[in-house]
From TrEMBL:
Recorded family membership: Belongs to the enolase family.
Species for this entry: Halohasta litorea
Gene assigned in the entry: eno
Compartments (UniProt record): Cytoplasm; Secreted; Cell surface
Cofactor: Mg(2+)
Biological or metabolic pathway of the protein: Carbohydrate degradation; glycolysis; pyruvate from D-glyceraldehyde 3-phosphate: step 4/5
Pfam family, one: Enolase_C
Top-level taxon of origin: Archaea
Annotated Enolase C-terminal TIM barrel domain residues: 130-398
Record protein name field: Enolase
Active site: E196 (proton donor), K325 (proton acceptor)
Primary subcellular site in the record, as a coarse category: cytoplasm
Amino acid sequence: MTQISSISLRRVLDSRGNPTVEADVLTESGGFGRAAAPSGASTGEYEAIELPPKEAIANAREHAVPRLVDTVYAGDQRAVDGALRAADGTENFSEIGANSAVAISMAAAKAAADVLGAPLYQHLGGAFRGENFPVPLGNVIGGGEHAKDATDIQEFLAAPVGAPSVSEAVFANAKVHGAAGDILDERGIGAGKGDEGAWAPPVSDAEAFEIMDEAVSRVSEEVGFEIKFGLDVAASEMYDEGAYQYSDGEKSPDEQIEYIAELVEEYDLAYVEDPLDENDYEAFAELTEQVGDQTLICGDDLFVTNVSRLQDGIDQGAANSILIKPNQIGSLSDTVDAIELAVRNGYETIISHRSGETEDTTIAHLAVATDAGFIKTGTVAGERTAKLNELIRIAEDAV
Ligand SMILES: O=C(O)[C@@H](CO)OP(=O)(O)O
Ligand SMILES: [Mg+2]
């Protein structure tokens, strides 16, 4: 029933106005799935390779499509992803492109769910999936590679850890975004928005901390539950010549560890992603040792959703959580392998969008299917709210 009968690939727009790969998968019984690849700006050095979409599509048509059509069952996700790996023949999808691979992988899962008449989260999670819903981490203020002339730290993220439901959490994050906008106004600071819809004000990181702190406490008081905040430092982007380059000077790796540990204390941060360079497992381990019992130290560029990099981190005690981005590794099976390895070792999982996104909502389903503790997918902007609104629908459907 789920045997793949055709695959179409096309270029569509992403939220930055760049082309990306979209895949349609059809099965012999009429099942249909459509998915599109997202795209990063602050990409990790060890990510699977995104090819220019035209090239990715041409190569996937030549190598992958013939291996899948009339042969592989969309319901057998491991077979779909195994065929993609075999068609590509490299470690990092540099032949067919991780963008083509992940689009086909996700579209096949959706086609299978369609045939089975089950929502995607149910198909991926199975009968015994957990009962929890992820806490949404929402980007409220940001800079780094996502906006010029804004903060050095890439993302200041609202974390509504005390929210009684997914929908209350989602609305609270949007309110924090609104409150941060009000505070910027009150301070006479004009701000545009970055790639993910977060405010991108021309302020120092120190001022952004003040604004975030004020915004989460205003909204927390209004909604009556605890809202903390966290960061994506995206430190690899500022690491150069052995030091972290901030607008107001540089910090050595030891100073960076001390600075982040102080921020965790001062602001009671719920979450700190990529506080250190992607090659410095040792520094990650040191910071985790210092503050890992108070906060999540998360590896994004450090782990790139890759089981062997995650295993290295587990062996060394580097970080206590992992960011999960299907396009960093190129297939849903590889993604789920990373999630399972993390869970077996007590690492929290955070399913994440990319800064370049589409209306695709697969990550909302993946987060629920795998019982992830968190999902990072913005606060406002259509390609972000697509996931958040899907999460609200899933929560309603799954009761
Ligand atoms: O660093 C990140 O976590 C992501 C998403 O916020 O950014 P990008 O997609 O640019 O890598
Ligand atoms: Mg990141």
